[in-house]
Amino acid sequence: MKGYTATAPNGEAILYIDRKRWFWLMSVLYPVVPLLAIWLHAGTGNEWWLLLPVLLSFGLVPLVDWIVGEDEDSPPPEVLKQLEKDPFYRRLTFATVPLHFVTLIGAAWYAGTQDLSGPGVLALAIAAGLTAGLAINTGHELGHKNTRFEKALAKIVLAIPAYGHFTIDHNRGHHRNVSTPEDHASARMGESIYRFAAREVPGAIRSAWRIEHERLTSRSKSVWHPNNQILQSYTLSVLIAAALVATFGWIMIPFLLVHHLFAYWLLTSANYVEHYGLLRKKDEKDRYERCEPHHSWNSNYALSNLVIFHLQRHSDHHAHPQRRFQALRNYADLPTLPFGYFTAFVLAYLPAAWFRVMDKRLLALPHIQGDLDNINIDPAARAAIFLRYGDKDSPSL
Known about the structure:
This protein has 16 helices and 2 strands. By secondary structure, the chain is mainly α. The longest helix has 27 residues, at 87-113. It is globular.
């Protein structure tokens, strides 16, 4: 295994080995699982195989997370620059982009040319949509980097689920407003994932268009100018959809609709669990404090991190947005999810169960210590939350 060497401030020699180096290939290959499902269906005729990606993500991955447990290994600060400069990891993200296209085209071909039942087409669209949600995660990793090539790849891969506005809103909207009442992508205490989705999905679109409009206007260009980065990705989305409809028929319209919606839902699920109830406070000048690791929920569960490019190390990501996935670090005393993302998603789909588990965990955080004024609370649930957890006569009510 490749090692990274450095010298600690006390003069001690440091040798760091990323023991997950080759395991990161799982993030590259996981998006093609729908092709395995297609192969199994072709060999057996059983359409239940088409749901294999869903069963793996929400069944096997949580089970392995529970068995293997957490991986709290962190690269020492002294080797981070070496680790980030290693081209091996960058090439992994590059290689993932065409595989997302292979999966979409393969799934579309199978849905359009084989004699599948209506539920079979739906199952395949959901399975492919799941990996299109992972395409948004690939775009997330690439879109945070400062090279033109990586930013271009982000726009290209985001065209698969037709979510080309993501990088604009995420980088310049969400990261600026994260864990504040102003952020549509930060869930509030007492807000169900379903109410959150109704606020988050349209909020992301409006935010991205506003940001891009301001950028283009400042350069004396129309929002419809070819330099509009959202339109560049949207145009590719339209071309992909048109090509699939022309090649495989009108069945592609409902197929792509379900495919895209499931991808959006996976992103919404991630956004919901990543900042639930966490709040950045304002200083004496009415400005929000700097985003710190404790403003995001973290998760170190091994397998679920290995299939989504370390997305669950979300605390370090928001503290250092341009840090590459392999260099994301763990810290002590972070807000920590009691499970990996896929398990968290299922719990979030059951709001009463989510609130029962996460509200107590939120209140117990060291920087909150049960003080509801330190929490981002849903205005619609504020009265009920204060009656349950706080003083009903509190001036904050």
